[in-house]
Automatic annotation (TrEMBL):
Name of the protein this chain belongs to: RNA helicase
SMART domains: DEXDc, HA2, HELICc
Keywords: ATP-binding, Helicase, Hydrolase, Nucleotide-binding
Organism taxonomic ancestry: Eukaryota, Viridiplantae, Chlorophyta, Mamiellophyceae, Mamiellales
Record InterPro entries: DEAD-box_helicase_OB_fold, DEAD/DEAH_box_helicase_dom, DNA/RNA_helicase_DEAH_CS, HA2_WH, Helicase-assoc_dom, Helicase_ATP-bd, Helicase_C-like, P-loop_NTPase
Catalytic activity: ATP + H2O = ADP + phosphate + H(+)
DNA sequence: ACACATAAT
């Protein structure tokens, strides 16, 4: 490939200057689901190892900051030990006296669990005693006894609904705030509000360098009335360095037209010319990963056959890695390669934050990622491939430096690299806000337009959310939460359309079916993905598929699964993900408890009649309805028109049934769908056959309003 | 032939 940077002896001296990027490295404290931990000095005592962490040298300074300031923004580089140590310093410093608790929030469940376990060991207690954790389905804490509580940001949000002043807590640590997940952003906004009412509540926000100033500015309340007592209301920023190996960054001389191919070529160059160490490639999705893996495996086979190959040359072992991959194949990517082999892991963004692969010395970065966007006009979320941010590519590069100094090859020119955004736009500005708005309203915050966001979402997104909640009858004419419907919808831990489906199923006599549908919609990757077995998967799906659509197919799967004598075997025989099925069962029983608490009789069933459950789905998802285009589905027979958009716009939106749907080859007249994605085209997923009359009957306000005055919807 | 970044209540 012309102009391509070549590593090793061929490296042209005129190539773009390489930058030495200092990144943090330490196996100790990266709490994000590390599977294999290694100790630098396994013989050192626990306390000696704790003292050796970079954060230990800053313990006194930190305690001073927390004492004197309401908010401390801590820039703690990966591996400095902040997540495990700060809560313990606070406890030692007396912040847990008198039944007070220190809360530490994490964006991910595994992180909350594993760090809690680690800290419990360091404190020397059983998990759930002095140190505990709380995530959606597990509350491993002892009220009155637990002094350090790790939880997901979402779990703390739920707690805020019941205890708006967080009276149990003396300090809240928001860890990994720079990731700016939806839950983190909502939590930060609410915490600012809590701090007004509770001057004694201390906040520690952990952030990457680049966002520290904006967090500090957000929490700055020094301009507000100050009685002079208590801590300063001006946040303070403190920084703790990590343990770092250098990562040498290389860029392309010329842009590449095909980053998948470039990634493969670079991996092969590294393999031939560079010293030992595994390779991690970042691409955007399953399709690209499959292509790259196929190309690399082909090359690996050819290298083995090459008669000129030296006897001590390393074999190449290639592993795909993405969240939807079957668990056995995922494990393969984490296992150290066999002796005499070098491992190449071809991954999505999972390997950027959620998991850590030990032994990686070379990172090859496409500098692209799939991103979510929300289109308020269509009320639809979409996914598209977009350039990654500098923050994201730096995080990726850092994955090369965990073991020893590493190298990162960015598949763009340095000039193009400079044009990347500094950080990825926070999720809150790119999302459907219906659930978020409902939750905030349920906390008694009526005037949502005045909510203080770290980054305010676009007004159009907010309006769309309010419209949907109004159409669902969760909000009244004054945009106030309705009772009981709106209040109940906020209590159910589901998106409001699914919540509505559940509540309505009580009246329609199909709660058992609705619970199953709702639970199955919560698990991603119901089917096991095997490379090269797509066709077989389609066949398996067709075994359960029915003409009524995906929801009824889920009911069939659930029934067959429950009847199976050996459920694990049933799952593997049918290419179903057993873990997903188990989780669906778990979610189902939780949802059942929620409904029972709200006074819904939970054992009604519509049996073999699918009309009631399909009507319940229509009652929740009436806004997502589409009809087959005139003349049998348009030119290629597959086109549907969105019902809502058809009246609002002169030209109807084209929608198609997603290839993963049971209805992919069917041509029903009218359908409701639970989600849609835009890739090259717009696809409906989780599709159910409904009747247009049901929509008019179940959501007369919505469809009458649309046809009477198109511009108002 | 067409296809699902990542999390969470």
């Amino acid at each position: 490939m012309a102009g391509f940077w070549r590593p090793g002896a061929d490296a042209p001296s005129t190539s773009a200057p390489s930058t030495l990027l200092t990144l943090d490295v330490d196996a100790d404290a990266d709490a994000t689901g590390t599977l294999i931990q290694f100790e630098k000095n396994p013989k050192a005592s626990l306390s000696a190892r704790r003292r050796a962490l970079p954060i230990a040298a800053h313990a006194d300074e930190l305690m001073y900051c927390v004492e004197k300031h309401q908010t401390t923004v801590i820039v703690g580089h990966t591996g400095c030990g902040k997540t495990t140590q700060i809560p313990q310093y606070l406890r030692d410093g007396g912040w847990c006296g008198g039944g007070a608790t220190v809360a530490v929030t994490q964006p991910r469940r595994v992180a909350a669990q594993t760090v809690a376990q680690r800290v419990a060991e360091e404190v020397g207690c059983v998990i759930g005693d002095t140190v505990g954790y709380a995530i959606r389905f597990e509350d491993v804490c002892t009220p009155g006894k637990t002094e350090i509580k790790f939880c997901t940001d979402g779990a703390l949000l739920r707690e805020l609904a019941e205890d708006p002043l967080l009276t149990k807590y003396s300090v809240v640590i928001v860890d990994e705030a720079h990731e700016r997940t939806l839950a983190t952003d909502v939590l930060l906004g609410l915490l600012k509000k809590v701090q007004r009412a509770r001057r004694d509540l201390r906040l520690i926000v952990s952030s990457a360098t680049i966002q520290a100033e904006s967090f500090a500015a957000f929490f700055d309340a020094s301009g507000e009335d100050d009685d002079g007592d208590g801590p300063s209301r001006k946040p303070i920023i403190m920084s703790v360095e990590g343990r770092a190996h250098g990562v040498l960054i290389h860029y392309l001389d010329e842009p590449t037209g095909d980053y998948v191919l470039s990634a493969v070529e670079t991996a092969l160059e590294v393999h031939r010319n560079e010293g030992p160490g595994d390779i991690l490639i970042f691409l955007t999705g399953e399709g690209e990963i499959d292509d790259a893996v196929n190309l690399l495996e082909e090359e690996a086979r050819e290298m083995k056959r090459d008669p000129r190959r030296s006897h001590d040359a390393l074999d190449l072992v290639v592993c795909p890695l993405y969240a939807g991959l079957n668990p056995a194949a995922q494990l393969e990517a984490f296992r150290p390669p066999r002796r005499g082999a070098r491992k190449v892991v071809v991954a999505t963004n999972v390997a950027e934050t959620s998991v850590t692969i030990e032994g990686v010395v070379y990172v090859i970065d496409s500098c692209f990622a799939k991103q979510k966007a929300f289109d308020p006009e269509r009320g639809m979320e979409s996914l598209f491939v977009a350039p990654a941010s500098k923050a994201s590519t730096n995080q990726r590069a850092g994955r090369a430096g965990r073991v020893r100094p590493g190298k990162c090859f960015r598949l763009c020119t340095e000039i193009d690299y400079r044009s990347l955004a500094d950080v990825t736009a926070p999720e809150i500005v790119r999302s459907d806000l219906a659930s978020t708005v409902l939750q905030i309203k349920a906390m008694g915050i009526d005037n949502i337009m005045n909510f203080e966001w770290v980054s305010p979402p676009p007004a159009a997104n907010m309006i769309k959310a309010l419209e949907l909640l109004y159409a669902l009858r969760a909000l009244d004419d004054d945009a106030k939460l309705t009772s009981p419907l709106g209040v109940h919808l906020a209590e159910i831990p589901l998106e409001p359309q699914l919540g509505k489906m559940l509540l309505v199923s009580g009246e329609m006599g199909c709660v058992r079916e609705a619970l199953t549908v709702a639970a199955y919609m919560q698990v991603q990757s119901l089917w096991v993905t095997h490379r090269g077995q797509k066709k077989r998967l389609d066949e398996m799906r067709d075994r359960f598929a029915v003409e009524e659509g995906d929801a009824v197919m889920m009911l069939n799967i659930h029934d067959a699964y429950c009847d199976a004598r050996n459920q694990a075997k049933f799952a593997s025989n049918n290419m179903l993900n057993h873990r997903a099925l188990l989780r669906a069962g778990d979610v189902r029983s939780q949802l059942k408890k929620h409904l029972a608490r709200l006074g819904v009789v939970t054992n009604s069933s519509c049996g073999d009649d699918t009309v009631p459950i399909r009507r319940a789905i229509a009652a929740g998802f009436f806004a997502n309805a589409a009809t087959l285009a005139p003349y049998g589905g348009g030119p290629d027979g597959s086109v549907f028109h969105s019902l809502r958009a058809m009246s609002a716009r002169a030209r109807a939106r084209e929608l198609r049934i997603h290839p993963s749907s049971a209805l992919f080859r069917s041509r029903p007249q009218c359908v409701a769908y639970c989600s849609a994605v835009r890739t090259d085209r717009e696809y409906m997923r989780d599709v159910t056959v409904v009747e247009a009359d049901w929509l008019r009957e179940l959501a007369p306000h919505f469809y009458r309003a649309v046809s009477a005055n198109p511009t108002t919807q």
